[in-house]
Amino acid sequence: MKAMIFAAGLGSRLKPWTDHHPKALAMVQGKSLLQRNIQYLQQYGITEVVVNVHHFAQQIIAALAENKGWGSSIIISDESEAVLETGGGLKKAAAYFEGEENIMVMNADILTNMALDQLMAQHISTGVMATLAVSERETSRYFLFNKEGYLCGWQNRATGAVRPEGIDALQYQPMAFSGIQVINTRIFPFISREGKFSMVDIYLDLCRQHSIQLFNHTGATLIDVGKPESLAKAASLFI
User: Fold this and answer.
1) pLDDT, tens digit, for every residue of 88-116?
2) Going from the N-terminus, what domains does the chain have, and what CATH number goes with each?
3) Distances (CA, A) of 128 to 59, 99, 123, 180
């Protein structure tokens, strides 16, 4: 299985680091977020990785070249001209996954010890379009799943917004998305959006006609390294 790591974001929450560097190269205990996630994927036999770049793209390209991909084979998906967010970034990189049935996709700023082999096994055994790693934790935005674990909608509790419009969020199980997913490549022909859009948009576009399932990893360590204070917390959790 090949993987894609989203490393193109502006990282505005991680200033002042991201005034001069890409978020993916922020350091935790002497290793960058990007290195940690490339080596995390290696633990589960994934050594071919597509990395998208935009913000300070050349720094990421140089780090990968200098360190020989930290032992993995790396392909760069260059978004220097325009950042495409996660969904647009995946669509742009689609050609790199030709011949693959399933791919692992994750954000560069997520650090976790969840069992990726269990996520992959569940996805392959069910044959669904996508399997989303989620957990029971406090956040402002939630995916909404039915009792069978299939995605039905989305809710922003801070603003009250729900998608699809009119859905009764109280009828569904709210789960926080962890930025990690396994996707069947048959998804690509169904992605009709163009330009800049998120993976959330893709999943909400498709969930009524295609099975998108949760993988509940509640109990595993996970941290979104999005703010300066989260770097210190990550350093206490990951050696």
Assistant:
1) 999 999 999 999 999 999 999 999 999 99
2) 2-237 (3.90.550.10)
3) 37, 18, 6, 15
